[in-house]
Amino acid sequence: SDESDWEVGDLELGGEAEGGLAVPVVAIVGRPNVGKSTLVNRILGRREAVVEDIPGVTRDRVSYDANWIGRRFTVVDTGGWEPDAKGLQQAVAAQAELAMRTADAIVLVVDATVGATATDEAVARVLRRSKTPVILAANKIDSERAEAEAATLWSLGLGEPHPVSAAHGRGAGDLLDVILEVLPETPREATTLGGPRRVALVGKPNVGKSSLLNKLAGSERSVVDNVAGTTVDPVDELVELDGKTWQFIDTAGLRRKVRTASGHEYYASLRTRSALDAAEVAILLIDASEPITEQDLRVLSLIIESGRALVIAFNKWDLVDEDRRLRLDKEIDRELARVPWARRVNISASTGRSVQKLVPALEGALESWDRRVSTGQLNNWLKDVIAATPPPLRGGRQPRVMFATQAATRPPTFVLFTTGFLEAGYRRFLERRLREQFGFDGSPVRINVRVRD
Ligand code: GDP
Ligand code: GDP
């Protein structure tokens, strides 16, 4: 159901989205004044020194994009909140609980010049049963002489205390190394990009897939040799378009037509699925001269499931007259309402009309598919949207959106941390506004909601 799609209670923020680049989350916890904010600034190298609070959205949590020796991660600072009537120990323990559910690594910051307080001990008790790795930072060790003070923190039962001076930078590099060691490996962007972009040409039988491929491969040189450093499956084909090489997936399957009556549809859908798996972007061919059919929509569903970027090519445009065009517009409104973001091109594979428009459409869609919005930008936008249109009450309670982060690209995947359920209508509203603000034309966008219980 719609609801279960959205309620990703066991979502692993650090988990790699299919083919995507997940960014792991590091939560910084500890009682007030131990130096959490100072440490976050140190981790960010003060590059993102705009350590502004984001009122309304993240009363108690602020998160930032960080990068250490080429590894990206998100740092979540729990420093902004004020201890209230609930009591300090309980508040800090609650922060630790939240960190355990949402982060890939937790850094507990303790003021080593003070030693372990009752509050530190209470948090440590919570964190000792954490499955998420916990790193103990013994802060305010400003000199070598002070290092002995860190050793007393072994008593917290969280392993080795790592001496650091957030204020002066002493030991910060070592601490970051330890943090990265426990973080899940994330693929680097450079290794996943760089080769030819992979395109799946999909659509029901007879829409013109092989005609289009012939036109594309014939209009310009079809690259026969392997491009250096790439391994191309022999069933794929490298095609040069506008001076750039593209890898069309399973072209052998497109050319070798199996038109047996029984089971044809089933095998066609298997082949479509596997082509989509291997691809980054899909061109969905639809016969513009005929009504959009159930079969077209089944292929569309496979594309949506795959999370690939999408260009819709309305083929056989040479057969489309004014009358058909008006009817097609209505069909598009009705049948393709699920993918208002898809890029559309009207082409004729026979005459070659507008086929060159496919290239900018593919490039734009891939650009959206790869795009990352910084956590700062995202939360600034979220703050404004929520201030203007707060989530509707549920059971008399106002759900609060604490913060958002883009957990993955390819496709862009966002996680909203909330204190209550967000209704489907409101989530769709957020997606619309997100697209208005940041684009993502041609790419699906996933929004997961994590409800803090
Ligand atoms: P938070 O409440 O945990 O976020 O703590 P802050 O980062 O706001 O720091 C609290 C106080 O401790 C500030 O006055 C900081 O300047 C100071 N502080 C933070 N790190 C260090 C450190 O490494 N050495 C010393 N001497 N002071 C620090
Ligand atoms: P596939 O099964 O999707 O690979 O479709 P084909 O490329 O084999 O095309 C099926 C039929 O549609 C062939 O007879 C093509 O000549 C015809 N066809 C393909 N593209 C166009 C087009 O743009 N205009 C017209 N009029 N016919 C086309």
Automatic annotation (TrEMBL):
A biological process term (GO) from this entry: ribosome biogenesis
One Gene Ontology MF term: GTP binding
CDD domains: EngA1, EngA2
Annotated positions binding GTP 1: 30-37, 77-81, 139-142
Entry keyword set: GTP-binding, Nucleotide-binding, Repeat, Ribosome biogenesis
One Pfam entry name: MMR_HSR1
Domain EngA-type G: 24-187, 197-370
PROSITE patterns the UniProt entry points to: G_ENGA
Positions of GTP 2 binding: 203-210, 250-254, 315-318
Function as written in the Swiss-Prot or TrEMBL entry: GTPase that plays an essential role in the late steps of ribosome biogenesis.
Subunit and partners: Associates with the 50S ribosomal subunit.
Family classification: Belongs to the TRAFAC class TrmE-Era-EngA-EngB-Septin-like GTPase superfamily. EngA (Der) GTPase family.
Protein name: GTPase Der
Species name: Gordonia soli NBRC 108243
Gene giving rise to this polypeptide: der
